[in-house]
Fold this protein.
Amino acid sequence: MSLGGEYADLQRLARHLTRKNIPFAIRSGGHSPSPFAANIDNGVLIDMSSFNQTQYHPHRKVATVGAGGRWLGVYNELDRFNVTVVGGRVVDVGVGGLILGCGLSYLSDLYGLTCDNVVNFEMVLADGSLTNANANHNQDLFKAMKGGANNFGIVTTFTLKTYAINQVWGGIKFYSLDQLPALFAAMQEYQSKPKKDLYANLMLQAFTTNASVGAVLNMVYLKPVVNASAFAPFYSIPTTGDTTKIQSLTQMMSGQQVPPLPRWDWFATSFRPTASIYQKIADIVTKAPELATIQSTAGGSLAIGVQPINTNLIRIGNAHGGNSLGLKNVNQTWFVLDAGWISSDADAMIHNATRALNTRIKDASKAEGVYEPYEFMNDASWDQDVISTYGVEGKRNMRQVQRKYDPNMVFQKLVPGGWKLPKDDYGEYGY
Protein backbone atom coordinates (compact mmCIF):
# COMPACT_ATOMS: atom_id res chain seq x y z
CA MET A 1 0.00 0.00 0.00
CA SER A 2 1.53 3.31 -1.12
CA LEU A 3 0.48 6.32 0.94
CA GLY A 4 1.45 9.27 -1.25
CA GLY A 5 3.63 10.76 1.47
CA GLU A 6 0.67 11.85 3.63
CA TYR A 7 1.23 11.62 7.37
CA ALA A 8 -2.48 11.58 8.17
CA ASP A 9 -3.02 8.56 5.91
CA LEU A 10 -0.21 6.67 7.62
CA GLN A 11 -1.58 7.52 11.05
CA ARG A 12 -5.07 6.35 10.12
CA LEU A 13 -3.66 3.16 8.64
CA ALA A 14 -1.64 2.39 11.78
CA ARG A 15 -4.72 2.83 13.97
CA HIS A 16 -6.83 0.66 11.65
CA LEU A 17 -4.29 -2.19 11.49
CA THR A 18 -3.90 -2.15 15.24
CA ARG A 19 -7.63 -2.14 15.99
CA LYS A 20 -8.41 -4.86 13.46
CA ASN A 21 -5.40 -6.98 14.42
CA ILE A 22 -4.13 -7.10 10.82
CA PRO A 23 -0.52 -8.23 10.20
CA PHE A 24 1.67 -5.80 8.28
CA ALA A 25 5.20 -5.09 7.06
CA ILE A 26 7.02 -1.84 6.36
CA ARG A 27 9.24 -1.38 3.31
CA SER A 28 11.78 1.36 2.70
CA GLY A 29 14.06 0.14 -0.11
CA GLY A 30 13.36 -3.59 0.18
CA HIS A 31 17.09 -4.43 0.17
CA SER A 32 17.02 -6.95 3.01
CA PRO A 33 16.72 -10.60 1.93
CA SER A 34 15.24 -11.53 5.31
CA PRO A 35 11.78 -13.10 4.76
CA PHE A 36 8.98 -10.68 5.68
CA ALA A 37 11.38 -7.89 6.65
CA ALA A 38 10.01 -5.90 3.70
CA ASN A 39 7.10 -8.06 2.48
CA ILE A 40 4.23 -10.09 3.88
CA ASP A 41 1.72 -12.79 2.99
CA ASN A 42 -1.92 -12.33 4.05
CA GLY A 43 -1.34 -8.87 5.42
CA VAL A 44 -0.69 -5.25 4.46
CA LEU A 45 2.62 -4.03 3.05
CA ILE A 46 3.22 -0.38 3.85
CA ASP A 47 5.33 1.05 1.04
CA MET A 48 7.22 4.08 2.34
CA SER A 49 8.71 5.07 -1.03
CA SER A 50 6.61 8.26 -1.23
CA PHE A 51 8.30 9.50 1.96
CA ASN A 52 11.47 10.18 0.01
CA GLN A 53 12.25 13.89 0.31
CA THR A 54 15.70 15.16 1.30
CA GLN A 55 16.12 18.73 2.53
CA TYR A 56 19.33 20.40 3.68
CA HIS A 57 19.17 22.92 6.53
CA PRO A 58 22.50 24.82 6.35
CA HIS A 59 22.07 26.88 9.51
CA ARG A 60 21.56 23.76 11.60
CA LYS A 61 23.99 21.63 9.55
CA VAL A 62 21.45 18.81 9.31
CA ALA A 63 19.38 17.17 6.60
CA THR A 64 15.86 15.80 6.93
CA VAL A 65 15.63 12.55 5.00
CA GLY A 66 12.46 10.58 4.26
CA ALA A 67 12.48 6.98 5.45
CA GLY A 68 11.42 5.71 2.02
CA GLY A 69 14.27 7.31 0.09
CA ARG A 70 17.34 5.62 -1.32
CA TRP A 71 20.85 6.77 -0.57
CA LEU A 72 21.70 7.85 -4.12
CA GLY A 73 18.86 10.37 -4.06
CA VAL A 74 20.02 11.64 -0.67
CA TYR A 75 23.62 12.05 -1.81
CA ASN A 76 22.71 13.71 -5.10
CA GLU A 77 20.65 16.33 -3.31
CA LEU A 78 23.31 17.06 -0.69
CA ASP A 79 26.10 17.20 -3.30
CA ARG A 80 24.50 20.46 -4.46
CA PHE A 81 25.70 21.95 -1.16
CA ASN A 82 29.04 20.07 -0.97
CA VAL A 83 27.96 18.19 2.15
CA THR A 84 27.06 14.60 2.88
CA VAL A 85 25.71 12.37 5.65
CA VAL A 86 26.89 9.17 7.30
CA GLY A 87 24.86 6.88 5.05
CA GLY A 88 24.85 3.65 3.10
CA ARG A 89 27.83 2.45 1.06
CA VAL A 90 25.59 0.83 -1.58
CA VAL A 91 23.66 3.72 -3.10
CA ASP A 92 20.53 1.75 -4.11
CA VAL A 93 19.83 0.67 -0.52
CA GLY A 94 16.83 2.19 1.26
CA VAL A 95 17.33 4.79 3.98
CA GLY A 96 15.01 3.35 6.64
CA GLY A 97 16.27 -0.20 6.94
CA LEU A 98 19.92 0.77 6.96
CA ILE A 99 19.56 3.34 9.73
CA LEU A 100 17.32 1.18 11.93
CA GLY A 101 19.81 -1.69 11.64
CA CYS A 102 22.48 0.81 12.85
CA GLY A 103 24.13 1.52 9.47
CA LEU A 104 27.82 1.31 8.57
CA SER A 105 29.34 4.01 6.36
CA TYR A 106 32.66 4.97 4.81
CA LEU A 107 32.49 7.89 7.26
CA SER A 108 31.91 5.73 10.34
CA ASP A 109 35.44 5.57 11.77
CA LEU A 110 35.47 9.38 11.62
CA TYR A 111 31.88 10.22 12.60
CA GLY A 112 30.27 7.04 13.96
CA LEU A 113 27.49 4.74 12.82
CA THR A 114 24.59 6.09 10.81
CA CYS A 115 22.18 5.61 13.72
CA ASP A 116 24.50 7.64 15.95
CA ASN A 117 24.25 10.55 13.52
CA VAL A 118 20.47 10.74 13.82
CA VAL A 119 19.40 13.95 15.56
CA ASN A 120 15.69 13.11 15.48
CA PHE A 121 13.40 10.21 14.61
CA GLU A 122 9.94 11.34 13.48
CA MET A 123 7.65 8.32 13.71
CA VAL A 124 4.14 6.96 13.95
CA LEU A 125 3.39 4.74 16.95
CA ALA A 126 0.99 1.82 17.02
CA ASP A 127 -1.86 4.02 18.29
CA GLY A 128 -1.47 6.29 15.26
CA SER A 129 0.14 9.18 17.12
CA LEU A 130 2.94 11.10 15.42
CA THR A 131 5.88 11.69 17.75
CA ASN A 132 9.56 12.62 17.83
CA ALA A 133 12.47 10.97 19.60
CA ASN A 134 15.64 12.95 20.18
CA ALA A 135 18.10 13.98 22.88
CA ASN A 136 15.49 16.22 24.56
CA HIS A 137 12.20 14.43 23.94
CA ASN A 138 11.46 10.73 24.44
CA GLN A 139 15.15 10.13 25.18
CA ASP A 140 14.58 6.47 26.05
CA LEU A 141 12.93 5.82 22.69
CA PHE A 142 15.70 7.80 20.95
CA LYS A 143 18.36 5.44 22.32
CA ALA A 144 16.32 2.27 21.66
CA MET A 145 15.76 3.21 18.02
CA LYS A 146 19.52 3.07 17.36
CA GLY A 147 19.67 -0.57 16.38
CA GLY A 148 16.00 -1.11 17.23
CA ALA A 149 14.80 -2.17 13.75
CA ASN A 150 11.00 -2.18 13.34
CA ASN A 151 10.22 -2.88 16.99
CA PHE A 152 8.78 0.46 18.12
CA GLY A 153 7.08 2.36 15.32
CA ILE A 154 7.05 3.45 11.69
CA VAL A 155 9.68 6.09 11.02
CA THR A 156 8.68 8.77 8.54
CA THR A 157 11.69 11.10 8.62
CA PHE A 158 15.24 11.03 9.98
CA THR A 159 17.12 14.22 10.81
CA LEU A 160 20.82 13.56 10.19
CA LYS A 161 24.00 15.50 10.90
CA THR A 162 25.81 16.68 7.77
CA TYR A 163 29.53 17.02 7.06
CA ALA A 164 31.48 19.09 4.54
CA ILE A 165 32.85 16.21 2.46
CA ASN A 166 32.63 16.01 -1.32
CA GLN A 167 35.88 15.34 -3.19
CA VAL A 168 37.76 12.24 -2.05
CA TRP A 169 40.34 9.77 -3.29
CA GLY A 170 38.92 6.30 -3.72
CA GLY A 171 37.61 3.49 -5.84
CA ILE A 172 38.24 -0.23 -6.19
CA LYS A 173 41.42 -2.25 -6.40
CA PHE A 174 41.04 -5.74 -7.89
CA TYR A 175 43.15 -8.78 -6.99
CA SER A 176 43.46 -12.42 -7.95
CA LEU A 177 42.04 -14.80 -5.35
CA ASP A 178 45.47 -16.22 -4.51
CA GLN A 179 46.31 -12.83 -2.97
CA LEU A 180 43.74 -13.33 -0.21
CA PRO A 181 46.31 -14.32 2.48
CA ALA A 182 48.37 -11.23 1.63
CA LEU A 183 45.26 -9.05 1.75
CA PHE A 184 44.33 -10.44 5.16
CA ALA A 185 47.85 -9.76 6.43
CA ALA A 186 47.62 -6.20 5.11
CA MET A 187 44.22 -5.80 6.77
CA GLN A 188 45.66 -6.85 10.11
CA GLU A 189 48.49 -4.32 9.74
CA TYR A 190 46.00 -1.60 8.71
CA GLN A 191 43.83 -2.28 11.77
CA SER A 192 46.66 -2.57 14.28
CA LYS A 193 48.11 0.92 13.90
CA PRO A 194 48.02 2.65 17.30
CA LYS A 195 46.75 5.93 15.81
CA LYS A 196 44.61 5.02 12.86
CA ASP A 197 43.96 7.73 10.24
CA LEU A 198 40.19 8.19 10.65
CA TYR A 199 39.81 9.66 7.14
CA ALA A 200 40.75 6.26 5.68
CA ASN A 201 38.09 3.59 5.27
CA LEU A 202 37.71 0.39 3.31
CA MET A 203 35.93 -2.91 2.89
CA LEU A 204 37.55 -6.07 1.55
CA GLN A 205 35.44 -8.57 -0.37
CA ALA A 206 36.51 -11.88 -1.86
CA PHE A 207 34.46 -14.12 -4.13
CA THR A 208 35.81 -17.44 -2.95
CA THR A 209 33.64 -19.53 -5.26
CA ASN A 210 34.64 -17.57 -8.35
CA ALA A 211 38.37 -17.17 -8.98
CA SER A 212 37.66 -15.21 -12.15
CA VAL A 213 36.29 -12.37 -9.98
CA GLY A 214 38.84 -12.74 -7.19
CA ALA A 215 39.00 -10.12 -4.46
CA VAL A 216 38.06 -6.44 -4.44
CA LEU A 217 39.12 -3.71 -2.07
CA ASN A 218 36.66 -0.81 -1.84
CA MET A 219 38.69 2.02 -0.37
CA VAL A 220 38.29 5.73 0.22
CA TYR A 221 40.27 8.56 1.74
CA LEU A 222 37.85 11.30 2.75
CA LYS A 223 40.06 14.07 1.38
CA PRO A 224 41.35 14.55 -2.19
CA VAL A 225 44.73 13.03 -1.27
CA VAL A 226 46.24 10.39 -3.57
CA ASN A 227 47.75 7.21 -2.09
CA ALA A 228 47.42 8.17 1.57
CA SER A 229 49.91 6.43 3.84
CA ALA A 230 47.07 4.85 5.83
CA PHE A 231 46.68 2.31 3.01
CA ALA A 232 50.42 1.55 2.76
CA PRO A 233 50.03 -2.14 3.79
CA PHE A 234 48.06 -2.78 0.58
CA TYR A 235 50.20 -0.92 -1.97
CA SER A 236 52.76 -3.69 -2.51
CA ILE A 237 50.14 -6.35 -3.35
CA PRO A 238 49.82 -6.81 -7.14
CA THR A 239 46.47 -5.76 -8.58
CA THR A 240 44.56 -6.94 -11.65
CA GLY A 241 42.70 -3.65 -11.95
CA ASP A 242 42.41 -0.26 -10.25
CA THR A 243 39.72 2.45 -10.44
CA THR A 244 41.02 4.66 -7.62
CA LYS A 245 41.16 8.37 -8.39
CA ILE A 246 40.07 11.78 -7.15
CA GLN A 247 36.28 11.95 -7.46
CA SER A 248 33.23 12.81 -5.43
CA LEU A 249 32.26 10.44 -2.65
CA THR A 250 28.94 9.81 -4.43
CA GLN A 251 30.77 8.88 -7.64
CA MET A 252 33.05 6.55 -5.73
CA MET A 253 30.15 4.71 -4.10
CA SER A 254 28.16 4.59 -7.34
CA GLY A 255 30.98 2.59 -8.93
CA GLN A 256 30.40 -0.40 -6.68
CA GLN A 257 28.61 -3.39 -8.20
CA VAL A 258 26.15 -5.92 -6.76
CA PRO A 259 26.12 -9.28 -8.61
CA PRO A 260 22.81 -9.76 -10.51
CA LEU A 261 21.49 -12.80 -8.66
CA PRO A 262 17.82 -12.91 -7.57
CA ARG A 263 18.26 -14.66 -4.20
CA TRP A 264 20.58 -13.77 -1.33
CA ASP A 265 21.28 -14.74 2.26
CA TRP A 266 23.72 -13.08 4.65
CA PHE A 267 25.38 -14.11 7.89
CA ALA A 268 27.27 -11.86 10.30
CA THR A 269 29.86 -12.41 13.01
CA SER A 270 32.47 -10.26 14.75
CA PHE A 271 35.97 -10.72 16.17
CA ARG A 272 39.04 -8.80 17.27
CA PRO A 273 41.59 -8.82 14.47
CA THR A 274 44.80 -10.84 14.80
CA ALA A 275 47.15 -12.31 12.23
CA SER A 276 46.27 -15.80 13.44
CA ILE A 277 42.49 -15.47 13.09
CA TYR A 278 42.83 -14.00 9.62
CA GLN A 279 45.02 -16.94 8.59
CA LYS A 280 42.44 -19.40 9.88
CA ILE A 281 39.58 -17.58 8.14
CA ALA A 282 41.49 -17.52 4.85
CA ASP A 283 41.74 -21.29 5.08
CA ILE A 284 38.06 -21.76 6.03
CA VAL A 285 36.59 -19.60 3.27
CA THR A 286 38.65 -21.25 0.53
CA LYS A 287 38.62 -24.90 1.63
CA ALA A 288 35.53 -25.64 3.75
CA PRO A 289 33.19 -28.33 2.32
CA GLU A 290 30.23 -25.93 2.42
CA LEU A 291 31.70 -24.12 -0.59
CA ALA A 292 31.00 -27.14 -2.78
CA THR A 293 27.41 -27.23 -1.53
CA ILE A 294 26.90 -23.59 -2.46
CA GLN A 295 28.49 -24.09 -5.87
CA SER A 296 26.34 -27.15 -6.59
CA THR A 297 23.23 -25.10 -7.39
CA ALA A 298 22.61 -22.79 -10.33
CA GLY A 299 24.30 -19.45 -9.78
CA GLY A 300 25.60 -20.54 -6.38
CA SER A 301 28.12 -17.94 -5.25
CA LEU A 302 29.76 -16.85 -2.02
CA ALA A 303 31.36 -13.52 -1.20
CA ILE A 304 33.03 -12.69 2.09
CA GLY A 305 33.18 -9.17 3.48
CA VAL A 306 35.75 -7.81 5.94
CA GLN A 307 34.75 -4.53 7.61
CA PRO A 308 37.30 -3.01 10.01
CA ILE A 309 35.79 -1.12 12.95
CA ASN A 310 37.83 1.42 14.91
CA THR A 311 37.22 2.27 18.55
CA ASN A 312 36.47 5.88 17.58
CA LEU A 313 33.20 4.66 16.07
CA ILE A 314 32.21 3.23 19.45
CA ARG A 315 33.35 6.30 21.38
CA ILE A 316 31.22 8.58 19.18
CA GLY A 317 28.16 6.42 19.75
CA ASN A 318 28.53 6.83 23.49
CA ALA A 319 29.13 10.58 23.15
CA HIS A 320 25.96 11.00 21.08
CA GLY A 321 23.64 9.64 23.75
CA GLY A 322 24.39 5.95 23.38
CA ASN A 323 22.69 3.25 21.36
CA SER A 324 21.26 -0.21 21.90
CA LEU A 325 24.20 -2.18 20.53
CA GLY A 326 26.36 -2.93 23.58
CA LEU A 327 29.62 -2.65 21.62
CA LYS A 328 32.89 -3.21 23.44
CA ASN A 329 35.45 -0.42 23.12
CA VAL A 330 37.96 -2.47 21.10
CA ASN A 331 39.07 -2.51 17.49
CA GLN A 332 37.09 -5.24 15.77
CA THR A 333 36.08 -6.72 12.46
CA TRP A 334 32.48 -7.11 11.34
CA PHE A 335 32.59 -10.11 9.03
CA VAL A 336 29.86 -11.06 6.58
CA LEU A 337 29.13 -14.03 4.34
CA ASP A 338 26.97 -13.20 1.29
CA ALA A 339 25.52 -16.21 -0.52
CA GLY A 340 23.69 -15.76 -3.83
CA TRP A 341 21.83 -18.21 -6.07
CA ILE A 342 18.97 -18.48 -8.56
CA SER A 343 16.26 -21.01 -7.64
CA SER A 344 14.01 -21.00 -4.57
CA ASP A 345 14.37 -24.79 -4.51
CA ALA A 346 17.87 -24.27 -3.10
CA ASP A 347 16.87 -21.81 -0.34
CA ALA A 348 17.19 -24.19 2.61
CA MET A 349 20.35 -25.86 1.29
CA ILE A 350 22.17 -22.56 0.76
CA HIS A 351 20.98 -21.15 4.07
CA ASN A 352 22.17 -24.19 6.02
CA ALA A 353 25.52 -24.31 4.23
CA THR A 354 26.20 -20.61 4.81
CA ARG A 355 25.17 -20.88 8.44
CA ALA A 356 27.54 -23.83 8.91
CA LEU A 357 30.36 -21.83 7.34
CA ASN A 358 29.63 -18.91 9.66
CA THR A 359 29.70 -21.29 12.61
CA ARG A 360 33.16 -22.47 11.56
CA ILE A 361 34.39 -18.87 11.63
CA LYS A 362 32.75 -18.20 15.00
CA ASP A 363 34.28 -21.36 16.47
CA ALA A 364 37.72 -20.39 15.15
CA SER A 365 37.49 -16.93 16.72
CA LYS A 366 36.31 -18.42 20.01
CA ALA A 367 39.23 -20.87 19.99
CA GLU A 368 41.58 -17.93 19.42
CA GLY A 369 39.97 -15.97 22.25
CA VAL A 370 39.05 -13.06 19.94
CA TYR A 371 35.31 -13.66 19.44
CA GLU A 372 32.98 -10.69 19.85
CA PRO A 373 29.30 -11.58 20.34
CA TYR A 374 27.87 -8.58 18.47
CA GLU A 375 26.10 -9.36 15.18
CA PHE A 376 25.66 -6.50 12.73
CA MET A 377 21.95 -6.46 11.89
CA ASN A 378 22.37 -5.05 8.38
CA ASP A 379 24.46 -8.12 7.48
CA ALA A 380 22.61 -10.76 9.51
CA SER A 381 20.48 -13.66 8.37
CA TRP A 382 16.84 -13.95 9.36
CA ASP A 383 17.43 -16.61 12.02
CA GLN A 384 20.34 -14.91 13.77
CA ASP A 385 19.16 -13.67 17.18
CA VAL A 386 20.71 -10.26 16.62
CA ILE A 387 19.20 -8.28 19.48
CA SER A 388 20.27 -10.92 21.99
CA THR A 389 23.87 -10.03 21.09
CA TYR A 390 23.33 -6.47 22.36
CA GLY A 391 23.82 -7.66 25.93
CA VAL A 392 21.68 -7.75 29.05
CA GLU A 393 21.42 -3.99 29.55
CA GLY A 394 20.57 -3.27 25.94
CA LYS A 395 17.81 -5.88 25.88
CA ARG A 396 16.38 -4.70 29.20
CA ASN A 397 16.25 -1.08 28.07
CA MET A 398 14.56 -2.02 24.81
CA ARG A 399 11.94 -4.07 26.64
CA GLN A 400 11.18 -1.14 28.91
CA VAL A 401 10.77 1.12 25.88
CA GLN A 402 8.49 -1.42 24.23
CA ARG A 403 6.26 -1.55 27.32
CA LYS A 404 5.98 2.23 27.35
CA TYR A 405 5.45 3.03 23.66
CA ASP A 406 3.89 -0.20 22.37
CA PRO A 407 2.18 -1.76 25.40
CA ASN A 408 0.01 -4.03 23.24
CA MET A 409 3.12 -5.36 21.46
CA VAL A 410 1.78 -4.47 18.02
CA PHE A 411 5.24 -4.39 16.49
CA GLN A 412 6.09 -7.74 18.06
CA LYS A 413 2.92 -9.61 17.12
CA LEU A 414 1.52 -7.95 13.99
CA VAL A 415 4.87 -7.20 12.30
CA PRO A 416 6.38 -10.67 11.91
CA GLY A 417 9.45 -9.77 9.85
CA GLY A 418 12.80 -8.38 10.84
CA TRP A 419 14.71 -8.93 14.07
CA LYS A 420 12.39 -8.88 17.05
CA LEU A 421 13.01 -8.31 20.74
CA PRO A 422 14.08 -11.58 22.37
CA LYS A 423 11.50 -13.41 24.41
CA ASP A 424 12.26 -13.73 28.09
CA ASP A 425 12.16 -16.89 30.16
CA TYR A 426 8.38 -16.73 30.28
CA GLY A 427 8.04 -16.77 26.52
CA GLU A 428 6.88 -13.16 26.18
CA TYR A 429 8.60 -9.91 25.23
CA GLY A 430 9.63 -8.42 28.53
CA TYR A 431 6.56 -9.44 30.58
